[in-house]
From TrEMBL:
List of residues binding glyoxylate: Y24, Y129, R164, H254, R257
Higher taxonomy: Eukaryota, Viridiplantae, Streptophyta, Embryophyta, Tracheophyta
Keywords associated with the record: Flavoprotein, FMN, Glycolate pathway, Oxidoreductase, Peroxisome, Photorespiration
Named cofactor requirement(s): FMN
Active site positions, chain numbering: H254 (proton acceptor)
Originating species: Salix purpurea
Location of the protein in the cell: Peroxisome
Associated pathway: Photosynthesis; photorespiration; glycine from 2-phosphoglycolate: step 2/3
Family to which the UniProt record says this protein belongs: Belongs to the FMN-dependent alpha-hydroxy acid dehydrogenase family.
Pfam families reported for this sequence: FMN_dh
Protein name in the entry: (S)-2-hydroxy-acid oxidase
Length: 369
C-alpha cells in the first residue's frame, strides 16, 4: 500500500511489532485523555489563508540555537528504538541527517551517544534524564559533548513515570537482547522484570525525584552546551526556565505519557510563548502529524516542532526508509500549507493566519479547561 500520510505507519507497526513493544510506543497515561486531546486540539484551529501572493518560491529553512536546518520539523527523543527495528537509532540518525534536520537522542536509547555519532555528520541533541547518582549524569553529559551533540534537552516532567496501563498489563520490560546502551558500562543498562511496568520500577530506582530548578543551574556548571527545558506547560515555568538559564523551552506533555488531563501542547503553547517574550525560542511536541499542524504551531509562536511516535512507527514499518519518508511527507505537507495560506518564508507565518476556537469570546476559558 502506498503511504500518503505519516499516520498510516501506525497500523503497519501494530501488525509487525510484538504487542508489548507496540503498546509501549503507542500508549498514553491513564485515561489517555491528553493523548486524544493532543490531536483533537489541532482541529480547533482554522486557517485565515491569504490569497494572490506569489508563492512560486517557498523557503522553509530555519536556525535552531544557531544551527541551520532545512525545515522547522525535528525528531523528539523516543527511547529504545531497536525494539522497533534492528538499526534503531542509527536509522533515525541517518534519516534526520539526510533530511537536514535535528535528531534528539534519548538517554534511554538502545544505541550509545558514540555509536550514533559514528553514523556520520548531523546536528544532534541529547535528551537527559537526571539519575540519582550525579556522577552518572556528569559522565554521560561529557560523553554526549565529546560525541558532538549540540544541546541538552533536559526532561523535567518525569520525577516518576506516568501510569501507562498497557505497560503494567504487559509487564513491560526491555527485551533481554537489548540494553540502554548509554548506561551499559555503568551497570544501569538492564531493565529487570517487575510485577508492574519494568520501566516504572527502573525510574523509581534510578531517577532523581528531588530534581528542581537549582539543578538546571547545576547542569550549567558541568556543561557548556545550551539547555532546552523539555516539559513546560505554563507561563510560570516558562519564566522560571529563563531565569534558570535555559537556552530554549520545549512545550511538551511527554506525548501524553505522564500527567493525564494536562492540556494539549498546542493549547498551552501561546501562554508559554507570551511569557517567554522572545527571550528564548519556544518549541513544541505532541500530536503533530500534518504539515498544517506544523504551520499552526508556528503561527502560535513556536520556532519549530518535534515528532515522537511517527518516528518509531515508521522505523518499525520500513526502518530508515520509513523515517526518511515521514520527514519528506511532513515537509511537503508543510510547504503546501505555507503556499496555500500565502506564506513564502517562516517569518511570514503570523498569528493572523489562523483563528483558534478560544479566540472567540464564548470560549475564553477553553484553554484553561
Ligand atoms: C517518548 N518521549 C520521551 N521523552 C523524553 O524526554 N525521553 C524519552 O526517552 C522519551 N521516550 C519516549 C518513548 C516513546 C515511545 C514515546 C511515544 C515518547 C516523549 C517524546 O520525546 C515526545 O515528547 C512525544 O513523543 C511527542 O509526542 P508525539 O509526537 O509522540 O505525539
Amino acid at each position: 500500500m502506498e503511504i500518503t500520510n505519516i499516520m498510516e505507519y501506525e497500523a503497519i507497526a501494530k501488525q509487525k511489532l510484538p504487542k508489548m513493544a507496540f503498546d509501549y510506543y503507542a500508549s498514553g497515561a491513564e485515561d489517555q485523555w491528553t493523548l486524544a486531546e493532543n490531536r483533537n486540539a489541532f482541529s480547533r484551529i482554522l486557517f485565515r489563508p491569504r490569497i494572490l501572493i506569489d508563492v512560486s518560491k517557498i523557503d522553509m529553512a530555519t536556525t535552531v540555537l544557531g544551527f541551520k536546518i532545512s525545515m522547522p520539523i525535528m525528531i523528539a527523543p523516543t527511547a529504545m528504538q531497536k525494539m522497533a527495528h534492528p538499526e534503531g537509532e542509527y536509522a533515525t540518525a541517518r534519516a534526520a541527517s539526510a533530511a537536514g534536520t535535528i535528531m534528539t537522542l534519548s538517554s534511554w536509547a538502545t544505541s550509545s551517544v558514540e555509536e550514533v555519532a559514528s553514523t556520520g555528520p548531523g546536528i544532534r541533541f541529547f535528551q537527559l534524564y537526571v539519575y540519582k547518582d550525579r556522577n552518572v549524569v556528569a559522565q554521560l553529559v561529557r560523553r554526549a559533548e565529546r560525541a558532538g551533540f549540540k544541546a541538552i534537552a533536559l526532561t523535567v516532567d518525569t520525577p516518576r513515570l506516568g501510569r501507562r496501563e498497557a505497560d503494567i498489563k504487559n509487564r513491560f520490560t526491555l527485551p533481554p537482547f537489548l540494553t540502554l546502551k548509554n548506561f551499559e558500562g555503568l551497570d544501569l543498562g538492564k531493565m529487570d522484570k517487575a510485577d508492574d511496568s519494568g520501566l516504572a520500577s527502573y525510574v523509581a530506582g534510578q531517577i532523581d525525584r528531588t530534581l528542581s530548578w537549582k539543578d538546571v543551574e547545576w547542569l550549567q556548571t558541568i556543561t557548556k552546551l545550551p539547555i532546552l527545558v523539555k516539559g513546560v506547560l505554563t507561563a510560570e515555568d516558562a519564566r522560571l526556565s529563563i531565569q534558570s538559564g535555559a537556552a530554549g523551552i520545549i512545550v511538551s506533555n511527554h506525548g501524553a505519557r505522564q500527567l493525564d488531563y494536562s492540556p494539549s501542547t498546542i493549547m498551552a503553547l501561546e501562554e508559554v510563548v507570551k511569557a517567554a517574550q522572545g527571550r528564548v525560542p519556544v518549541f513544541l511536541d505532541g500530536g503533530v502529524r500534518r504539515g498544517t499542524d506544523v504551520f499552526k504551531a508556528l503561527a502560535l509562536g513556536a520556532s519549530g516542532i518535534f515528532i515522537g511516535r511517527p518516528v518509531v512507527f515508521a522505523l518499525a514499518s520500513e526502518g530508515e526508509a520509513g523515517v526518511r519518508k515521514i520527514l519528506q511527507i511532513l515537509r511537503e505537507e508543510f510547504e503546501l500549507a505555507m503556499a496555500l495560506s500565502g506564506c513564502r518564508s517562516l517569518k511570514e507565518i503570523t498569528r493572523a493566519h489562523i483563528v483558534a476556537d478560544w479566540d472567540l469570546p464564548r470560549n475564553r476559558l477553553a484553554p484553561r479547561l
